[in-house]
Request: fold
Amino acid sequence: MISADDIRSLRGNQIDAEDTIALKARIAHIRQDRRPFYLTADEFQSILEWKLGQQLGRGRKLRVANTDELIRAVTGFALTISHADPDYEIELKIGALCLLRGVGVPVASAVLALAFPEKYAVIDYRAWRQCFGVEQTIFWVNDYKKYMREIQRLADELGWPPQEVDHAIWEYDRRKR
Reply:
């Protein structure tokens, strides 16, 4: 549905561009310095705040069970998984992150997109609507794999990282609505 020409001028123009750049830089620094790579509860909370914004309160009662030790263990496992089959790697990474209470595919995709912006994007109803012309608010792993194929197609055409394609589509939808 959406084309590269629709979003070409929107690179870096999303409403939260500065926050996104700062958070990606913070996580890139952690990724470079921390071996093995994992997130602490505070770092994970920053991602939740970035992704959920005003919806942060939803799922809070579930997420309170996620201790710092548990978040370190689960994210350490999820963020270090690699596999030759990219679809299987997505299944493993998303599945592992969804072991944390209150974390579904959209939040798990945000963790991946901020940790590996060169490889992943955040699944969201706005971008889904623009990519596939369908209203959808609940996403599963197969949806994310389908979404990533479309984002990667656009990323290849534009020469951008997937995370930046995703944000440009989000901004396109926001402006259109």
